[in-house]
C-alpha cells in the first residue's frame, strides 16, 4: 500500500475528535440498520480511521472488518480486530458483506468522479443481495459554513498542531493543512484534500455503479436531504 494520507494526523486524531460523540453516531448507524430491517451477519466499515466508531458498534455488530488506506490509523486499533489496509476504490475481498458503512465524509477523499463510480461498483460487488450500503457525504453548505471553525491550534502529549482549512469554491476542493511540531522540535506537515460533489452527482454515480438509492437523509435524522443540506446520509442497495 503506497500511500498513508493520515500518517501525521494519526498522532493527534483522537485528540482532535475528542468532542465528537461517536456514541451518538454509532446509535444512528444502528438505527439505520434497524430501520431497514437488515438481518446482517457480516459487517464492513470503510475508512474506519482509528476505530473510534467501532468501539461503540462492536457491542451490537458481531463480525466486523475494518478497512482503511492509512496503516498509521489502523495501527491505533487493537490487533485483535480484523483490520485491512486497502484503498476503498480497490476492495480486496472475495466474500460478501450484509451491511457496509462509512462515516465522517470519507467518500469526499475520493477526488475524481470516475473513481467514485468505481468505488460504488466495488461496493456493489461485495454487497450481499439484501445488503445495505450507508455513508455520509459533505456538501458545499458544510464547507462554506464551517471552513473558519476548522482553523485551530492545539497541544497534545508535547506536540503542537495547527490546522488551516480552506475551501476553493471554483474547483470545489476543501483542503485541510496540518502542521505539527513534535516534542523533539521536528516539524511535519500533511494536507488532506476532499472533493465537494453536487447532491445530484451521487444519485447518478450510484445508478451507473448498479446501486439503488433507497433514501438520502439529512445526516443523523430520517428526514429527506436536499442540495442545501450540510451532511447527507445515503442508504443504498443493489439494483
Ligand atoms: C475523516 S477520517 C474518518 C475516520 C473514521 N471514519 C471516523 O469517523 O473517525 C477519514 C479516513 O478516511 C481514510 N481514507 C482516505 N482515503 C481513503 C481511501 N482511498 N481508501 C480507504 N480509506 C481512505 C483516511 O485514512 C482516514 O482514516
Describe the structure.
This protein is 24% helix and 34% strand. It folds into 2 domains: 171 residues, Vaccinia Virus protein VP39 (Rossmann fold, 3-Layer(aba) Sandwich), CATH 3.40.50; 53 residues, N-terminal domain of TfIIb (Single Sheet), CATH 2.20.25. With 239 residues, the protein is α/β, with parallel strands linked by helices. The protein has a 7-stranded mixed β-sheet with strand order 3-2-1-4-5-11-10, with helices on both faces. Strands 6-7-8-9 form a 4-stranded antiparallel β-sheet, with no helix packed on it. α5 crosses α7. The chain starts with 12 loop residues before the first helix and ends with a strand. The site of S-adenosylmethionine has 18 residues, from loops. This is Methyltransferase type 11 domain-containing protein. It comes from hydrothermal vent metagenome. GO terms for molecular function: S-adenosylmethionine-dependent methyltransferase activity. It holds the Pfam family Methyltransf_11.
Quick structural gist:
With 239 residues, the chain is an alpha/beta fold. The protein is built from seven helices and eleven strands. The chain folds into two domains: 9-138 and 198-238, Rossmann fold; 142-194, N-terminal domain of TfIIb, CATH 2.20.25.
Amino acid at each position: 500500500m503506497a500511500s498513508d494520507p493520515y500518517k501525521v494526523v494519526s498522532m493527534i486524531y483522537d485528540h482532535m475528535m475528542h468532542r465528537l460523540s461517536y456514541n451518538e453516531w454509532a446509535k444512528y448507524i444502528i438505527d439505520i440498520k434497524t430501520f431497514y430491517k437488515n438481518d446482517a451477519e457480516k459487517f464492513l466499515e470503510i475508512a474506519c480511521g482509528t476505530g473510534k466508531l467501532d468501539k461503540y458498534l462492536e457491542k451490537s455488530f458481531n463480525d466486523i472488518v475494518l478497512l482503511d488506506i492509512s496503516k498509521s490509523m489502523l495501527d491505533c486499533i487493537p490487533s485483535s480486530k480484523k483490520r485491512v489496509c486497502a484503498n476503498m476504490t480497490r476492495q480486496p475481498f472475495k466474500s460478501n458483506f450484509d451491511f457496509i458503512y462509512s462515516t465522517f465524509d470519507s467518500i469526499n477523499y475520493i477526488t475524481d468522479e470516475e473513481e467514485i463510480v468505481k468505488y460504488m461498483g466495488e461496493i456493489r460487488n461485495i454487497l450481499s443481495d439484501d445488503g445495505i450500503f450507508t455513508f455520509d457525504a459533505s456538501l458545499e453548505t458544510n464547507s462554506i459554513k464551517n471552513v473558519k471553525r476548522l482553523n485551530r491550534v492545539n497541544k497534545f502529549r508535547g506536540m503542537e498542531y495547527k490546522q488551516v482549512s480552506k475551501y476553493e469554491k471554483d474547483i470545489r476542493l476543501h483542503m485541510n493543512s496540518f502542521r505539527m511540531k513534535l516534542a523533539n522540535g521536528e516539524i511535519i506537515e500533511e494536507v488532506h484534500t476532499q472533493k465537494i460533489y453536487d447532491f445530484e452527482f451521487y444519485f447518478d454515480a450510484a445508478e451507473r455503479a448498479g446501486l439503488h438509492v433507497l433514501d438520502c437523509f439529512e445526516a443523523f435524522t430520517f428526514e429527506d436531504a436536499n442540495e442545501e443540506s450540510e451532511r447527507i446520509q445515503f442508504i443504498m442497495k443493489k439494483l
